[in-house]
Amino acid sequence: MIQSMTGYGKATAETANRKVIVEIKSLNSKAMDISARIIPAFRDKELDIRSRITAALERGKVDFALYIDTSAATGAQAIDTAVFNSYLKQIEAIALSTGYKVPDDIISTILRMPEVLSTSQQDEVSDEEWQAVSRALDSAIAALVEYRKAEGVALEKKFREKISNISALLASVEPYEKERVARIKERMRTSMLDAVGKSYDENRFEQEMIFYIEKLDISEEKQRLTNHLDYFIKTLEEGHGQGKKLGFIAQEMGREINTLGSKSNQAEMQNIVVRMKDELEQIKEQVLNVM
Asked: pTM above 0.85?
């Protein structure tokens, strides 16, 4: 089963002194890119946290947050004036540059910002509390992975639908392909008669026509595209970790479809090619989100 790189997980660790929230979400990325916001009390655990996230998620743009639910804090709360002033200066600078007025309730707004309020025990983390937070971290990661799997199921269904559509469109080319050859022959013969009348070498004309039609033959492109469609489904069934490979196959499919379009030389076939390109574009957009 393939997995999406989009996911979300959240878990809570409740201790005697506070309620710690662990929140993690991920989007697609070519590599692992972790952005972590961790309250000072747990900063020494950051390397461990990053290592566990990387091992579990492998790839993606990950936004991780570990913070205290101040509404549930039992210890006395204090205002971190340095953090408060930093937020205030940023808001005032934005207001000055944009022409907006600083809101009257700016103090209450800043007090709700991360890390402005703290508890008296915030810098004290016992082994028991870290164990609880560690379990919450595992739960949040597990929830995100399950989310990714569910998204992967939806993606696989969409891919199979699009591949089936391209295959059906490719099959619909055949009657137009035969008609196209007949039209080309007739058009070339008419042009020759208009140019030189009946005084031309019929055998030479037939040889040149065969050579020209061979250059427009799309049999190989059709076979290669069919192979790519089959290989895409086979790779899809290999499951987790095939995102980049699926992307490469989609690129090869695009090359064959483009060649079909350049060789089609007929309005009906070109319309079919445009529809195949539309289906493939939707595959390319979604394959970027596959692990």
From this structure: no
Residue type, position 254, single letter: G
How far apart are the C-alpha atoms of 164 and 39, rounded to whole Å? Answer: 50
Cα 38 to the center of its chain, rounded Å? 27
Summarize pLDDT for 174-222 with one digit per residue, the tens: 888 777 766 776 666 676 666 666 666 667 666 666 666 667 788 889 9
Q: b/e string for 208-218 if b means 16 or more Cβ within 10 A?
A: ebeeeeeeeeb
24 strand-pairing partners: 9, 64
| Burial of 75 from C-beta contacts in 10 A (0-12 / 13-18 / 19+) | middle
Phi and psi for 17 in degrees, rounded to 5?
Answer: -100, -30
Closest CA to 127 of 47, 193, 202, 45: 45
Contact 151, 4 (CB under 8 A): yes
b/e map of 82-103 (b: 16 or more CB within 10 Å)?
ebbeebbeebeeeeeeeeeeee
